[in-house]
Amino acid sequence: MKVLIVGGTGLISTGIVHELVPRGAQVTLFNRGQRLTRAFANLPVIQGDRNAAGDFEQRLTRERFDVVIDMICFTPAQAEASVRAFAGRTEQLIFCSSVCAYGVDSPPQVLIDETFPLAPSTEYGKNKLACERIFERAAAAGGFASTIVRPSNTYGPGASLIDQMEFDSTVWDRVAHGLPVLCAEGGMTLWLIILAMAVLTFYQRASFLLLPERVLLPPLLVRALRYVPAAVLTAIWAPEIAVGNEQLLAGAVAIAVAWRWRMTFATIIAGLLALHLFAWLI
After folding, report:
1. Rounded Cα gap, residues 19 and 25, in angstroms
2. Order of all β-strands in the sheet with 26-31
3. Which of 7, 155, 219, 225 could share a disulfide with 72, CB 3.0–4.6 Å?
4. The pLDDT of residue 189
5. φ and ψ at 71, to 5 degrees?
6. What does the DSSP 8-state code read for residue 178?
7. DSSP assignment string, 130-143
8. Greatest extent of the chain over all pairs of C-alpha atoms, in Å
9. Are residues 143 and 14 in the same domain?
10. How many other CB atoms are there within 10 angstroms of residue 15's CB atom?
């Protein structure tokens, strides 16, 4: 069986490769060739940039694979490029989506299935869901059979565990040894988290009133505490405005150039260059 993995060097991809190769699959990777390890030294690699749609399609439309596993598809444009590259050239396409496609609604039970409503709240989740729809339409049109995977809790070599309980593998070690998993509130920890946040917030704010009068805080700490409200407020709104907003970042560059050199033409050029640079980076 010929398998192409688009990506192939990330956390999940590495595990897939380690499972496929011992089973006799002919695995080929498509990536930029920047993170290859000794474990993949003998695997063929088609080097290219996933973000360059024309190059991506040109390199892969000449190939034929039984299965394609797309691990690094994050936008509808990338999904459309995959459809153009693989429709009619592979039997099965497996798309790595995300649990973020479900959104933030709490299910009535710990486990959910495919019938749970899809209501992503983040841009990442919305893009993943849009990619799912594109692959589903391609499958309905007969381009290939599609399978969608929505990973949630993942861990492995080189990456810490990401779940709602802790950042190590204790939970999964207990599962592997057949031991019961310890879950607060039957696994539904939302209210306990809110309660813990409320208690911590109360004691943080009340600590200065509860401390004995003879306890004096260092002057430097007292001075630093004056900036806490402004810092917290900035931490809340700054990411919403600055992250992913290339126009704002380019405007900041233009303002800095205008303030430093006071040259109209230089300000315009700097702003335009910064806008294109941030648009490409973001």
Report:
1. 9
2. 45-47, 26-31, 2-6, 65-70, 90-96, 145-149
3. 7
4. 58
5. -100, -15
6. T
7. HHHHHHHHHHHTTS
8. 79
9. yes
10. 13
Token pair 């335009």 is found at: 272
Joined tokens for residue 270: 């700097």
Give the pair of three-digit tokens for residue 117. Answer: 């409503």
Q: Are residues 76 and 134 in the same domain?
A: yes
Residue 11, pLDDT score? 83
Give the number of other Cβ atoms within 10 Å of residue 127's Cβ.
22
Q: DSSP secondary-structure letter at 207?
A: H
- pLDDT score recorded for residue 163: 53
Q: Please name every residue paired with 29 in a beta bridge, in sequence order, or none if there are none.
A: 5, 45
- Note the pLDDT of residue 214: 61
Instruction: State whether 278 and 239 are in the same domain.
Output: yes
Q: Are residues 276 and 200 in the same domain?
A: no
Residue 57: give its domain's CATH number. 3.40.50.720
Contact assessment for residue 4 and residue 68, using Cβ atoms and an 8 Å cutoff? yes
**pLDDT at position 83:** 95
Indicate the number of domains in the chain.
3
Candidates 77, 79, 91; CA nearest to 132 is 79
Q: Which domain holds residue 260?
A: 219-282
3-state secondary structure of 176: helix
What is the reported pLDDT for 111? Answer: 76
Residues belonging to the chain: 282
Does residue 65 lie within any of the structural domains?
yes
Kindly state the DSSP code that residue 49 receives in the 8-state scheme: -
Amino acid letter for position 47: Q
Residues of the chain with pLDDT under 50: 164
Residue 120 domain flag: yes
pTM: 0.59
Cβ 162 vs Cβ 154: under 8 Å: yes
CB 70 within 8 A of CB 82: yes
Q: Are residues 198 and 119 in the same domain?
A: no
Question: Is-contact 276 253, C-beta < 8 A?
Answer: no
Nearest CA to 68 among 77, 54, 56, 51?
56
